[in-house]
Amino acid sequence: MSENESKPASESTDARIRAASRKQTRRSFTLATLAAAAGYGLYRWIEAGPKIGMQPAALRRAIQANAAVSRALFDERALAPTYPVERAEHLRINGLIGLKQALLPESWRLQVVGVANEASFPQYVPDVTTWKYAYSRGSESTEGDHFTFIPPEPVINRLDPILASSQDHSHPYEEAGQSKSALPAGTPGLLLTLDDIAKLPTHELVTEFKCVEGWSQIAQWSGIRMLDFLEAFPPAKKPDGTLPRYVYMETPNGDYYVGYDMAVCRHPQTLLVTHMAGQPLTQLHGAPLRLHTPTKYGYKQIKRIGLIAYTDTKPDDYWTKLGYDWYAGL
Ligand SMILES: Nc1nc2c(c(=O)[nH]1)N[C@H]1C(S)=C(S)[C@@H](COP(=O)(O)O)O[C@H]1N2
Ligand SMILES: [Mo]
Prior knowledge:
CATH topology of the largest domain: Sulfite Oxidase, Chain A, domain 2
Strand content: 15-25%
Strand order of the largest sheet: 5-7-4-15-10-11
Distance between the termini: 39 Å
Largest sheet: 6 strands, mixed
Bound molecules: ligand MTE, molybdenum atom
Structural class: alpha+beta
Shape: globular
Number of domains: 2
CATH architecture of the largest domain: Alpha-Beta Complex
Order of helices and strands: HHEEHEEEEHHEHEEHEEHEEEEH
């Protein structure tokens, strides 16, 4: 038996991922150097140009070109760098689609659709769409209860610099409209509680969070791996024996929605997050469950997940609909 064969399979996989990761870091550095060389004049031109959605149009086109390059060059499984926990910051709040009312925590369930042998699970229901989420305007908040601090909308607008600066759009954050992947009534599936999810092993990750608007912060996340979730609640095979290629997620009211390739969901750093900075998620950071994937931009990291559906039809995706790259790869 060679030295390599005696190692557990996961260890050699990890080593390969790390090697690929180092390669990616070098390439990103080269791209950054080129971008810096393009200089201040270009930056001024970008700032002065028209805005489309979240960012200046010119910057968005450049990012889309980079996304195409990254798809061609980079291994989807390359690991994003991690940091010592001391470097973690308090992540700012950005993007409130689907979060404008406080969700009552006891009314939360995770709808899961497309699970193999779903009827054999105790959480099986014949129609997940009849589940009623309940909301509060938040004014009756109890001291120290992180679920009820959400202020009414006008206060949110004043507090959030991004929202405050985008007042020239009539509905800047709801422009993509309803999801084409919304579930039809009568869709069977599972209704999971947070306890059902918390039974899976917890993982912690300190990674850089990057928003396509051009800011980034190091944050400390903990939750369960999407990979473990997929094992606990595996997708049903299609009649031809193959697995569905996509995962679709949306907020409880369906206002924000994101589509993922199965490969992203199986990435070892893709987490279903329950805690940030050691504390349970707050409402505006996506309580009780959000997605974190350090290999993708922030707009792929949905807050307040209400539905996870396995599907073989490429799902609708809020920002892709508005012209942003589906892969959103870093
Ligand atoms: N439900 C929901 N999730 C969302 C968004 C949103 O508007 N609604 N915005 C996305 C974007 S663009 C970013 S940058 C991150 C911001 O996460 P944060 O508020 O925790 O910093 O959330 C992402 N997930
Ligand atoms: Mo973002």
